[in-house]
Amino acid sequence: MADYLVYRYTGSGDTVAEYSPGIEIKRFRGKASLRRRLSLANSLAIADYVQQLPEKAKRMINQQHVKDENHLRALIAKALRKEVHSATAPSVDFIKQVLDNAYSSGITYDVTDAKNAVTSFAAKSTNQAERCLKVVQEMHFMSEDKMEVQEDGDGPIAFFDVEVFPNLFIVCYKYPGEPVRRFFNPSAEDVKKLMGLRLIGFNNRKYDNHIMYAASLGYSNEELFEQSQRIIENKVNATFREAYSMSYTDVYDFSTKKQPLKKWEIELGIHHQELGLPWDKPVPEELWETAGDYCANDVEATEAVFNHLSDDWGARQILAELSGLSVNDTTNQHTCALVFGKDRRPDKSKFVYTDLSTIFPGYTFDKFKGSSYRGEDPGEGGYVYSEPGYYEDVVLLDVASMHPTSIEELNLFGPYTKTYSELKQARIAIKHKDMDALGKLFDGRLLSIAKQYDLDKLGTALKLPINSMYGLTSAKFDNPAYDPRNIDNIVAKRGALFMIDLKHYVQDELGLTVAHIKTDSIKIPGATPDDIQKVTEFGQRYGYTFEHEATYAKMVLVNKAVYIAKYAFPHEGEWTATGKQFQEPYVFKKLFSGEPIEFEDYVQTKQVRTAMYLRFPDGEPHFVGKVGAFVPIKPDRGGGELLRENKDGEIKDAVVGTKGYFWKEAEVVKYLHLEQDVDTSYSEALADEARAAIEQFINFDEFVA
Length: 705
Hints:
about 700 residues, alpha+beta, 5 domains, seven-stranded antiparallel β-sheet, five-stranded mixed β-sheet, globular
């Protein structure tokens, strides 16, 4: 039994689902009415309610949401079982009505995973299959609005990871600084409780969140495994829209350095563990704890990486404050919110698409044949040019923010470009600590934030959306910054065409050699201050600003991607290298910097797409993962061949760069203090190759003297 108070409402406010605990307010419009059996009345006249009703609260992910979606799923399932109507067509109509009601009511839901089942059901209609399929196409399988995550909720922060097998679902989580806790095949209720925590994972927005969400809906182990495979194989409707917002944040997403968790483990010296169990086979119960150990290790690693990336995390928090979004939203979402404001779908008719041949006469583009300008291919992502050789007094000039400047000069987003330019101006103001200029941007909000946070973190926070926007313009998928006319990637292309013009200017007008061009930088041997000024003025014609980044006293350029150089400015006497050949730690220290050689300098990180194995002389191949850290071992010291699985599933091909040597996992060698077993000849061979590369152009001893 419930008590009802009826008022005549004369205000204009919205309704709320729950005014306070136990008190629900409903506003009935039009012909709507409340029908309940009258059991008791006070006989008082209906009074007017003139106060404004409370605003409907923003929806957060909570237990009530899950119940709402569960109820929706239950109704769809009933219809598919023909428990509502005995015929197919009215059952399909019922499902559409249910979804329409949910869509218009404002609840947050995502049942896109049911679309295939509903479509198949509709197609089986004996007489009305075509009509039924048309009805399915009109169904709203997900809500329109975006669910928000309450960052300042009651739940504490916890790091988590999941593993999925046909018969086993593992959830591991830990509070900061505490031991890892494990759940084996947790119930839906247990998972819901965990979802009440502020969960932090690694690449969890794309995988773990959706597995947890499915588990909270009561998916069986078999169904979870099927869901996992669908996500891994990137199948259509493999994920739940609402699950993206289930977590507090995703370490992989806010990290500026994108690499797998296993590579972070190697880089940070964290225990690196591989499971060695087939993912598509049931796990024997006696090995459940082993699988749990693997999952727990990843949780420990996630916390360690999160702590290591404190600056990136600080930048994400600032970015969220600027954009008004959650720290769980992606960098791209923050970027679009900053540039386009509340226009989630900006009017792209206002975007500006420029035919680059009007700026660079003679330029041609064919989507099948590619680009051509002044007899050269400018590339589709940036122009690269090199004249390998030995050079002295090499001036390195770099275009400041090439892609952002190109966006500005092209007025790419029409009226929205002004906001994007403000982001760039703000970063420059922060760089120069110009607080007056900062206060004039974004209605003074940036200055207020600058007083709360470290300026360097604020600069990093602004750099992320500035650079992210270029990626969105060049992306092949639809997004707020995507212009379907832009098949030519005109942002990068404008910079590339400019660099070709610059090369010809330096060569033909200044009479200098251009040793190397890489996207937004140029290396000019023998350039004088007057030459630098002329290059700067040339850039200004196109809207670009050059910065004198360095001068190399000497440099050997091996190819477009590899060089070694010694600074004259700004780090006089120090060496710098680009490309793996000279950046190899042992090679760089041994040949150039003269720093002491340490054990880590012998370590080789190897990665394959399939799987790696160590095969010892007297045993079967031992699985070591897809990525790992290894050291070469002297013969007869217990090392094995490092092999990879080929496309036919055979384990016989050597991992690239390992053939002819024996290997052990670096962690094992260090733990057992077997450093004396390291085969240093492997690293010496790399050093010899680096010497030979230099001696193509100059005597090595003369070069390093």
